[in-house]
Amino acid sequence: MENSLPDSSSQFSPAKQILARHGKSFYWASLFLGAKLADRAARLYQFCRFVDDLADGDLPDRQESLQDIRQRLNGQSRQAGVETEAFINLATDNNIPLVAARELLDGMLKDQQPIDVQDEAELLRYCHAVAGTVGLMMCRVLNCQHSRADSFAIDLGVAMQLTNISRDVLEDAKMGRRYLPASWVDLSAAEIAEADESCHESVAGGVEQLLDMAEDYYQSALLGIQLLPFRSRFSINVALRVYRQIGWVLRRRNLCWWQGRVFVSKGEKALLSLRSIMDLRPRTVPQHRAELHQHLQGLAGVYTK
User: Fold this and answer.
1) Chain segment 221-230, per-residue pLDDT in tens
2) pTM of the full structure
3) Which of 205, 104, 202, 116 is nearest to 161 (CA)?
């Protein structure tokens, strides 16, 4: 998830303040949703941000806390904190599948150990856990009535997470996490964290593969956005285009991952929002590309082919 520090107004709800402070791209997109849907989306983001911060924090009992939340989502404990109870209320009101939230917690729990992804299948299953599930839950929050939309929503989450990974290669490596598959890049997280010139090119090649893979999922998600209600369609389109732009900015910087995070400028966001208007024209949504989910069978929202 993104970290940024735009000004937030005291008139915002706590959930919207968190979105404005930490999710710049998502906050921008939420401005086009309308008050009611924007509030729901912000409340979902608030929970996701809470567990993400817990997973990446330095509290000594963070793994136990994440396990407590997961047990609560599985109905195995009575209470696990205000944030979790607020999310369960949101889920109940909006028919959010708790299996998706439990898989989100599984992804956060995985991050409590050193990460050493071996192949594309492991990478994609992790992306589904921490982001594809969020797309699935967001579909419910935005009142989507088409069951077909689930597959495309998962694709958007996966695409965004692949973008996150490409942007945060150095930061993740310093935390002992290497999401770049070993089949692509034969370097440890510690070696990548050194950012020595000798590994610049090989890691950059892996980043390029991440962005190429993300593009496949973005293209699929663009088609599925047509299944959303009209107003939600525009907002999610903006979110997609702004987030995808992170990858293009990284490419413009010649994939210089060792120089740290890249950001999308306000001017680019405004331009991408205008371009999103063109995507509102009605189009027939084709069948979902089954090969995009070949490694995700058995996970929340993934339908057996």
Assistant:
1) 999 999 998 8
2) 0.90
3) 104
